[in-house]
Specification:
CATH architecture of one domain: 3-Layer(aba) Sandwich
Strand order of the largest sheet: 2-1-3-6-4-5
Number of helices: 6
Helix content: 25-40%
Distance between the termini: 19 Å
Oligomer: single chain
Number of strands: 8
Order of helices and strands: EHHEHEEHEHEEEH
Strand content: 15-25%
Structural class: alpha/beta
CATH class of one domain: Alpha Beta
């Protein structure tokens, strides 16, 4: 089967702790998983179906690949090198927060290579990618640092910066395909609420390839009966099921694009 001309970015699916910070942190593995997009590689990595998938092993708690290099604490505790988790828990021991040298090391090892890979994919000679998707998961309820704190979120949110990074017609079409593939109601998939698209979507969208940020609610997999919060064990068959739904949505989307 010919691969679909899509580019999938999964920047927050990693769980690794860099050696440079292991002796400086005060959070555990559960905090690391909760701060990132746990298990999204299992759902969104459809390498067999699409032209390119880019993913990173680094945990979002330590380097957020969906932030600008100069987006740093203390101005933004949820910046490119974070000082606290999205649930306002300090990441580093007192006095052990990353200094300028460590920040530069983390950016050099993790942030810049990811963005260099995006640029190389988009500019590679002969590429025919027609759409890029920056794929994430979102808490079912808005966390402490979010503008929608405590509010129930939809099952999917598609962000295109209100039409700036991808045409609205294309984004609506993808929303319809997600509804059909996942058997969802109209209100289960929203556009630009609560997320209109982060740094990756904003930076690369429509330059020249259209980009959409995809946010899937963790309520689809990080809850009973699929998930045990005490052990962080998850039903792998549920992840495979969600991946198959995502694959079906992309196949339908491309078919309709060609009409």
């Amino acid at each position: 089967m010919k691969k679909l001309p899509f580019f999938i970015s999964i920047p927050h699916g990693g769980t690794e702790t860099p050696d440079e910070v292991k002796e400086r942190i005060c959070i555990g593995q559960a905090d690391i998983l909760e701060d990132g997009d746990a298990f999204t590689m299992d759902i969104y990595d459809v390498s067999a179906d699409v032209r390119q998938v880019l993913k990173a092993n680094i945990a979002r708690a330590f380097v957020d690949l969906n932030r600008a290099e100069d987006d740093l604490p203390p101005e933004n505790p949820d910046g490119v090198v974070k000082s606290s988790t999205c649930y306002s828990k300090p990441i580093y021991l007192p006095g052990q927060e990353p200094d300028d040298a460590l920040i530069e090391t983390l950016l050099t090892r993790f942030h810049r290579p990811y963005h260099r890979a995006i640029g190389e994919t988009l500019t590679r000679s002969g590429t025919d990618i027609v759409l890029a998707l920056d794929c994430h998961s979102m808490a079912a309820l808005g966390p402490d640092i979010a503008p929608d704190t405590g509010k129930r979120r939809p099952l999917f949110c598609l962000g295109n910066r209100h039409g700036k990074t991808c045409p609205m017609e294309t984004t609506h079409l993808l929303a319809d395909c997600l509804r059909q593939a996942f058997d969802l109601e109209e209100s289960d998939v929203t556009l630009n609420q609560p997320f209109a698209g982060g740094y990756i979507t904003r930076t690369y969208g429509a330059n020249p390839v259209p980009w959409i940020q995809v946010e899937m609610s963790r309520d689809l997999f990080l809850r009973q009966p699929y998930f045990d919060r005490e052990t962080w064990l998850i039903d792998s068959s549920r992840l495979r099921e969600l991946r198959s739904f995502f694959q079906a949505a992309l196949q339908l989307f491309f078919k309709l694009l060609q009409r």
